[in-house]
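B., you asked whether I could sanity-check this one before it goes into the benchmark set. Here's the sequence:
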Amino acid sequence: MNKTIRVIIFLAILDILSIAPVAAQPINYGFSLDTSGLAATGNSYQFQFVLSGEANNSVTISNLALAGGGSTPAGQPTTFTLTDSPTNFFTAQTWQFTPGASLSFTLSSTDIAPPPGVASDVYLTFLETLSGIALPTNDPFGEDALLRLTLTGGVDKPALFQGSAPPFTTGLVVTSSSTGTTGGTGTTGSTGSGPVPEPANLSLIAIAASFFVMMEGFRRVRRAARV
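And here's what the prediction gave me:
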């Protein structure tokens, strides 16, 4: 087999493998929030959960729970799902509560990368007054979010931010995650995730290396047969 044919076969294999989709890895986190400072005001507040974009991601909020004397309106759901798409760019849900000592919830999300030329989906959590005004946080994006999750299709982690003015000066704490991380707070939350080698790319490299090893073996066998 001459060199030109070997190169053509190698490129054909890479082309076939490169179109295989990379399975998006789900994201799962549990969070808690100290709301004792808010409870002291005697006021009610609301969480707003927002997903925007068009990459067909879904975020499910579940196990919404209050501790220490808090309450929620009757019939308010403790589990719901937000889904975006090219025809449904923005979706949101609000969850009202009268704070007790703390609250907790679970976040589960797909992590589908956007198509070329389209921005990544973004999920945000806000703590607001009942009139929809976000309580200030140290969010560097200036949106006063408590949590920001950019869904790039890579190894994405939520960025957590902390309340910056009394009576709200706490932040979300990670109680569980798909990677086993616990105990993190929002004071030094990362604003995104860096690029990492994707499994598909690593597979291509391994296959390419194996291909050339195999071709070299064939050449050696042929040379030995001629002797």
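One thing to flag: The radius of gyration is 25 Å. Otherwise nothing jumped out at me.
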